[in-house]
Amino acid sequence: MLGYSIQDPVFQGILTRRTPHDLIGSCDSVDEFLHWLKEQGVCSIEVRILPRHANPVAYAEVIQRIWDAGLKITVHGHVEGNMVGNRFEDVYPSMKYILRHLGNHQDEVMMAIHAYDAASGSEEQLFGRTVELFREWTSIVEREQLPLRFALENNRKKTGKVDPGDTTAGVLDMVKQVGSPLLGITWDMGHFYSDLLHSQEGRKLQVPILDLPEPEFIRRVVHTHIHGIGSRGTHQPLTDPSSLPLAHYVQALQNAGYQGIYNLELTMYKFGSDRPILDHASASIQRLKKAVLNG
User: Fold this and answer.
1) CA–CA separation, 208 vs 193, rounded Å?
2) Which residues contact 201 (CB under 8 A, 6 or more apart)?
3) How far apart are CA 141 and CA 138, in angstroms?
4) 10 Å Cβ neighbour count for 94?
């Protein structure tokens, strides 16, 4: 199943973040963009990002339109502050509409999410805080028998940020310590490849780096974020074959028995102007589709 992330300004009714409508590929409406994605072979839309306290009316309206278009949804969540409560609707209020209407449209929903991070402090403390949070969340979900699963995502290394999830080993260790079948891993391929390139002093290599994460990391992957690396950084289209060793990564997942969504996480306002936005998006979708089918 192919997925495609749509950024949160679309759900808030804000379409002029950079240039008008570039977050929906310069289409005239969200519905037109959803129809275009479906024609391209996309079956799932990820909400990127659903904050804990989002405008319930705005988000619910677009989420329902996604479902009405015959598409599934996944959610990119966000940890912030002390996220505690007796029920998951109290922990994450903006998930209320999804959880109450999910059964009419799909069996379960996947929430991709990063670990706690900070501008300073102890990585060990952030690691422990993340483990404690997901032990609590998975316990609540199990108790309430909610159709919800979590997938901890590997982030890229950033200067000036303390992040226990900025390595695949760190993410794997947190998931193992939580020890719940309700928590797996989101493999962000673009973040992973960006860090590999930086380890080579940022050079654009003629031969791609074919290193892979730890085998156990790959076995625990339940979701993906896929984007290319280019002159404008991460979340670029896959138009340039050198942007990501995509087929190699997809093959590794398929060898491990991966059955989840291959989700493109592109930032369309960062695309180059050499081709129309939808041309870059279409080339990315078709390249991903080919890699999945030929894997």
Assistant:
1) 10
2) none
3) 5
4) 20
Conformation bin of residue 151: beta by default, left when phi > 0, alpha when psi is -120 to 50: beta
Model pLDDT for residues 12-56, shown as the tens digit of each residue:
887 644 554 689 998 989 999 999 999 999 999 999 999 999 988
Tell me the per-residue pLDDT of 242-263, one tens digit each, with 9 for 90 and over.
999 999 999 999 999 999 999 9
Q: Centre a 10 Å sphere on the Cβ of residue 116 and count the other Cβ atoms it contains.
A: 23
Q: Are 137 and 178 in contact (CB under 8 A)?
A: no
For 47-74, what is the mean pLDDT? Answer: 94
Regarding beta strands 72-76 and 42-48, do their DSSP bridges make them parallel or antiparallel, or are they unpaired?
Answer: parallel
Answer yes or no: are the C-beta atoms of 240 and 250 closer than 8 Å.
no
Cβ(69)–Cβ(103) below 8 Å: no
pTM assigned to the model: 0.96
Whole-number CA gyration radius for the chain: 18
Locate 295 and state its tokens. 């894997």
